[in-house]
Amino acid sequence: MKVTLFVTCLTDTFYPRTGMAVVKVLDRLGCQVDFPQEQTCCGQPMFNNGFTEEARALARRMVQVFEDSEYVVTPSGSCAAMIRDYYVDLLKDDHAYAAGAKALAGKTYEFYEFLLKVMKVDLRQLGARWPGKVTYHYSCHLRGIGVTDEAVRLMKQIEGLDYVPLPKAEQCCGFGGTFAIKYPQISGSLVRDKVACIKETAAPYVVSNDAGCTMNISGSCHRDGVKVKFISLAEIIAEALGLLETA
Amino acid sequence: MSTFEAKNQASAPAGTHATVNLSISGQELLFPPLPYDIHARADAATANKQLQDFVHVATYRKDVTRKQVTSETFGPKHGAFRDLGAAIKQHTLDHLDHYLEMFVERATAAGAKVHFAQTADQANDICLDVARRCGAKLCVKSKSMVTEETHLLPQLQAMGVETVETDLGEFILQLDHDAPSHIVTPMIHKDRRAVARAFERELGAVYTEDPQQLTGIARAYLREKYRRADLGISGGNFLVAETGSLVICTNEGNGRFCTSAPKVHVAFVGIEKLVPSYEHLGVMLKLLARTSTGQPLTVYTHVITGPRRPQEHDGPGQLHIILVDNGRTEILKKETREMLRCIRCGACLNACPVYRKIGGHAYGAVYSGPIGALITPLFRGLANYPDLPNASSLCGACFEACPVKIDIPRFLVQLRSEMVSRKITKLSDRLFYRLWAWSLGRSWTYRIGGWMQKMFFRAKARQRGTLAKGDPYRSRGWLDHLPGPAAGWTSQRDMPTPPARSFRQWWNQERSSS
Amino acid sequence: MSGHNESSQRATTLGVSQETLLGKVRQALGRLAGQAIAAAPKVDPNLVRLATADEDLVALFTKRATETGMKVYRVQAADLLRQIGSILEEAKAKRVACAVGTLPQAVGLNDALRRRGLEVVDWQAQPGFEAQYELDAGITDVHAALAETGTLICNSDAGHSRGLSLVPPVHIAIVRQSDILPDMVDYWLRVRSVTGKDLPSSQALITGPSKTADIEGILITGVHGPGQVHILVVEKM
Fold first, then answer.
1. Out of A161-170, A202-211, C96-105, C109-118, least confident range
2. Is the pLDDT of residue B513 over 70?
C-alpha cells in the first residue's frame, strides 16, 4: 500500500521524532511511504484567522501536492480536520480544484485513525511492548473528523502500557493557534486547568498527538516546574515495536 | 435518581466574597461603550476566584449532565433527533414569511392581538401603549431575553409602572442592579451571600444565607406582586404557526403566574421562534429541556392560545404578542440564517471552555457564550465587537453540544473573514498573515522560514542556557520571553524551541536515496 | 417614536404593519408573497416516540414523575377519597378547592371533603386568581398524562382554572390509568385537529413541583408554584 506522509509544519520543525516514528511504523506495516518535498502547511492559521483567500491558495497547493497519492496520512488531527472539514467548502466554486479538494478530503487520515480503520492494526499481534504509565490528551479537532477513542484503543493494545484517563479530557487545552497569543489570560487559565488534571493522574508521561496542544501544555508544565514528559503515540508505538530507541 | 441537574449539589466554597463588576451598573454590563474590548473584563474574570468557583464548576456540571441525559434518553437516536430539530428550525426559517403569516392569522383567530416591531424602540412603544391603555400600575415580568435586548424595564419604570422581575434569579439581579450572565441561569455568577445582602438591604428581610429561606422570602414578596399586578410581561420559547400558540418554558412557575394572574398579558417574541405545528413543537421540547438542564421537560411547559375564553374563570382578558425583528432579518440572510435556529438552551455556554473562564458579562452584551459571540456582532456591529468572534479556540465543543446543530466554529471563522475583508482586522495583522501565507506558498520560502525560526529560538535559548544537548531530533530548549505580540504566549507559559534538526532533514538524509 | 416610513403615515399605529415586517423577511429570504413552500420535515412518530404503548405505562409514568419530585400513589377507586384525605391531613390543609369535572363529581369530592371538616372554597365565585390565593391545596383531574416524561397536562376550561394546579402550595392530581399516554407525540396527535378558540387558552404540561436552582445551583422546590404535587393514579373509574 502506498502512503503519502503529510508531516505538517509544526511537526516538521518542532516534533521531527514524531514524523520519523510515523514513517518507521508505516514501514513496518509494509506500506510504501513517500514524502513530497513540496508540502508546506495546510493553511489552517490563515483560515482560522479569517484570511480566506490566502487559505484557499494554500489549499489549492495541497490538492496539487497530494494529487497522485492513494492515502494521505498525517500525525495531526487538527490539520486532518482542516483538510476534511473545510477544503471542500473553500474550493467548491473553483472548477479546477473542487473535485481535487473532495478527493483529498476523502483520502486524508489522521495517523491513528488510519492504523485502525484502514490498516486494521492489532498491535498485540505485532508484539508491541512499552512499559510505562501514561495519560492522554484528546485534542479538540478530532471531534470534527469523528475520531474518538482510536488512540486509547491503540494504547490498550500495547503490553505494559498503563493508561490513566485524564479528568475533563474533552476540555480544550486553550491553544487555539493565535488565540493563545491574543487572549493570553483566558488561554493561560485553560492550560493551567489542563496541567492540574494531568497532575491528578500522577502519570509521568502525557501522550499528546497534536503539535500545537503539545507546545502549549508542555510549555505550561515547564513554566510551573511540572515534571512530566510529552510523547506522541507514534513515538510510543515505534519504541514499542523496537523501531526507535527508547529515549 | 432525579435528572434535575442541581440535586444533591454540594454547597459552595466559603470565603469568596468578591462580587464581579459591582462597580458597573447592570445597564453598562450589557450595553458597554462601543467598540467593546473584551480584555479588561475577561482578565478580571479569569483572576476572580468566585467566578471560577461558581461559573466553571456549575457549567461543567451542567455539561456533564447534558451528555449523560441525552445519551440515556435518545441513545442511538440522538443524532437523528438533532438532525430533525435542525431541519425543523431551518425549514421554518427558510419559509419564515409563510409561517409568520399563518401564525398571525391563527393567533388572531384565537383572540390574540399581534403587533409587529422592527426595532427595539418600536417594541417598547407598543408595550408602553398597552400599559397606558390598561392603566397599569404594577407589572410582573417573567424572563425574556428580548426585553433585555430592547431594554424595556427602565422605560416602564419611567412612565410610572412599577415592574418586577419574577424569575428568582432575575428578581435578585434586579434588586442588586446587576445583569444576567447566562441565558438559562441568569445569576450563575452570584453567591448566596450576595442574595442575603440584597434581600436585607432592599426588602428589609432578616439576614439569612439559607437558600430555602431566601426562596421563601422571594415567594412571599412576589405573591403580593402577582395579586396586585395589572400587567404581565413574558418572552416566548416557541410560537406554533398552525395553532397561533405561544409556548413558555419555566421551572419556577413564575411564567404561568405572569401570563395568568394579571388582566393583560404582553409577550415579546423574536420572529425566529416559530415552528410549523404541535408535532414539530414536540420534537423541539424534547430537545430543549434535556439539553438545557437535563430535565425531561421544564416543570411548566405552558402553551397559550389566545386570551381567556368567556367560559373560563381565570387568565388574562387581553393577550398581546409583539413579534420583534430588531436585527433578525439581517441575520436571516442566507449566509447567516442558520444562527437563528438557536432555541436558547444554553448548552453551548455550558460546554464552552472560554465561557467557563470569563463568564457572561465579559461578552459585553445580552447574549453571551458561543452563540452570543456570533449574534452580538451581527445585532450590534462587527466593528463594535471585534473580540467576540476571535476570543475562541475553535475547539468545537459548542457545535457538538448544540441541539439544532449550529456550526458555531464555522461561523466564527466566517465573521473573522468578514473582519479581514472589511479591514476591521488590524493592519499589522493583515500584513503579518499575508507575509506568512506568502512564505508558506513555496517550499523554499517555507524551509527558510522554518530554519530562521529555529535558529532564532535556539540562539535565544542558548543565551539563556536552557538548550539541552543530546538527540538532535528531540532535545530542545525553552524560552520564557518572546518579543512583540508573541509575548502573549510567554506571559503564561514557556515556549519550546525546535530540536537541532527537522523531520525534513532526517528524511533527506535517511530516506530520499532509498 | 418609530421612524419608519410606512408607520409614520399612520400615526396611530405603533410599530410597523404586518406587510412591512413580512416584506423585510421576504427580502432576506429572496421569496415572493404567497410563494409555495417546501413540505415541512416529517416527524416520524417511530423516531420521536421515546415510550410506546407496549410498555407498562403506569410503571413508567410513576417512575418518571417520581424522578421529577412528584409523589405518585396507585389507588383503587374505592380508596381515592381516603387517600386524598390523608394527603390533606399530612399537609395540614384546611382550605381546599376542586376542579369541576366529571371525575371529582363522580366521586362526590366536595361533599366528602366537607364531611372531613375541610373548608371547600368555590373558586368560581369570582374571576381571576383572587379566590385561590388563600387555598392550602388545589385538587384537579387532568386532561392527559405522559408516561415518557412523567407529565400532567392540565388545560383550562369552564371547570378547570389555571390556578388550582399553580397557586396553592399543594396540588393533588387525579389521573385515571386511561389518561396516561405513552409519549408527548401521542398528545399532540390527539389535539392535532383542534385549532383557534376550540383550543383551551392554557395547556399546562406539568413535570414536577415548582423548582429553582438559581441560588448556587441548589435545588429548591415551591418557588412560585406548588412545592408538593401528589398524583393519584386510579386503576378503574
1. C96-105
2. no
Q: Residue A187 pLDDT > 80, yes or no?
A: yes
Measured between beta carbons, which residues in chain B are less than 8 angstroms from residue A46? 433, 436-437
- Judgement on whether residues B220 and B172 belong to the same structural domain of the protein: yes
Indicate which CATH number applies to the domain containing C139: 3.40.50.10420
Q: How many CB pairs under 8 A join A and B?
A: 204
Residues B83 and B136 placed together within one structural domain of the fold: no
User: Looking at the domain A2-118, which fold is it?
Assistant: Rossmann fold (3.40.50)
**Which strands, in side-by-side order, build the sheet including A108-110?**
A32-34, A2-5, A71-74, A108-110
User: Which A residues in the span 147-176 are in contact with B, Cβ-Cβ below 8 Å?
Assistant: 168, 170-172, 174-176
Over the stretch A26-60, which tens digit does the pLDDT of each residue have? Answer: 999 999 999 999 999 999 999 999 999 999 999 99
Bridge partners of B496, per DSSP, are: B478
Measured CA distances, C162 to B297, B325, C165 (Å): 19, 31, 7
Query: Is B168 within 8 Å of C214 when comparing Cβ atoms?
Result: yes
Q: With contact defined as beta carbons under 8 Å apart, do C49 and C182 qualify?
A: yes
Test B393 with A48 for CB contact under 8 angstroms.
no
The tally of domains found in chain C comes to: 1
| CATH at B240 | 3.40.50.10420
Range of the domain at B460: 438-510
Q: What stretches of chain C show up as alpha helix (H) in DSSP? A: 5-9, 18-29, 45-48, 57-67, 80-90, 102-106, 109-115, 184-191
8 Å CB contact of B185 and C202: no
**Closest chain B residue to C215, measured at CA:** B192
Please tell me the predicted confidence (pLDDT) of residue B20.
41
- What are B165's strand-pairing partners? B141
Interchain contact A187–B (C-beta under 8 A): yes
* Chain A contact for B449 (CB, 8 A cutoff): no
ipTM exceeds 0.95: yes
pLDDT band at C192; cut points 50, 70, 90: confident
Residue B165, domain member (yes or no)? yes
CATH of A129-240, picked from 3.30.70.20, 1.25.40.10, 3.20.20.70, 3.40.50.1860, is 3.40.50.1860
Question: Is residue C126 scored above 90 in pLDDT?
Answer: no
Task: Please name the residue of chain B whose CA is at the shortest distance from the CA of residue C3.
Answer: B122
- The whole-number average pLDDT for the span B252-278 is 98
Check: CB of residue B132 under 8 Å from CB of residue B159: yes
Contact (CB<8Å) B2/C129: no
To the nearest whole Å, the CA of B390 is away from the closest chain A CA by 7
Contact B333, B10 (CB under 8 A): no
Asked if A186 is an interface residue toward chain B (Cβ–Cβ < 8 A), one would say yes
Q: Which chains touch B (3 or more CB pairs under 8 A)?
A: A, C
- Please indicate, yes or no, if residue C77 is contained in any of the structural domains: yes
